[in-house]
């Protein structure tokens, strides 16, 4: 989905939260329309002044950079519902132009918006660090950010940020204070995402279908996450074969695959498997360390800990995450 349409759809999905926690339905609709307007629509003319201020949030001894957006000018001192915005896998992070426009529009619509710069997601790495950063950012938003109404604040995560947002909303330190969580195009189980990349098929309960995942995704992500592999020699081999596959998906890399350790070959077998039914037994042979890392970043064991109102939406078809 093209980014302008993605943010437009996100704004539409956010309408229930806008109506419940922010302003009038008319303002909500104007916000959605503004997303598609390059120069800004009616909402931008009604509320032209938005302040964007940089903030730094301490997380585990490190500093998380973020931008805080809020309406300025007349009425700028009014307390607003807070919105934590979590970007997906994007190299520009919080400075992505479309994300900046989206955050600005949400501020005009009546939210106080916090947009952190998630280093892991910027480098295409889904890690627990991002969940901890999101939880700390939400705590900062409702406890320290100026002009925020804590009891009306929530989270919006886009793409891989949707899964991160739901995991953060389950965190014991903030879950009682998250009023709502919106996941747009988010994941549920990362093993299902890998299965989608390799076989092009998806399933959930009785739902079955064929998608069109981008062919480079699995190889690009393995390049960005070589530290998942325990054996340094396997990292070297996967680095070479993944780069070869990125240049030419049809390339024969069997020679490289033969150099892998047994655990490395088990992972390669999963990535190379195109048969949907054969994926589960092959996945069971993958290193427990890799499976544990993926399980810890998935929702099946944590979703029951989310206390907020949950709004889920997904584009169909989605080339990155199966709906």
Describe this structure in words.
The chain is of the alpha/beta class. Helices cover 44% and strands 19% of the residues. It has helices at residues 3-13, 15-21, 25-35, 42-46, 97-109, 119-122, 128-143, 160-169, 190-199, 217-224, 232-247, 254-257, 262-272, 279-284, 288-296, and strands at 50-59, 62-71, 80-86, 112-116, 148-158, 180-184, 201-204, 207-210, 309-313. A seven-stranded mixed β-sheet has the order 1-2-4-3-5-6-9, with helices on both faces. A two-stranded antiparallel sheet has the order 7-8. It is elongated, with a radius of gyration of 21 Å. The protein starts with a helix and ends in a 10-residue tail after the last strand.
For the terminal residues, how far apart are their CA atoms?
13 Å
Round the Cα radius of gyration to an integer and report it. Answer: 21 Å
- Low-pLDDT windows of residues: none
The counted number of beta strands is 9
| Helical residues, percent | 40-55%
* H-E order: HHHHEEEHEHHEHEHEEHHHHHHE
- Coarse structural class: alpha/beta
Strand content: 15-25%
Spatial strand order of the main sheet: 1-2-4-3-5-6-9
Global mean pLDDT: 88
Largest sheet features: 7 strands, mixed
Structural shape: elongated
Question: Number of helical segments?
Answer: 15
Index terms:
7-stranded mixed β-sheet, 15 helices, 323 residues, 19% strand, two-stranded antiparallel ribbon, alpha/beta
Summary of the model, kept short:
The protein is an alpha/beta fold. The chain is built from 15 helices and 9 strands. Strand 7 (201-204) and strand 8 form a beta hairpin.
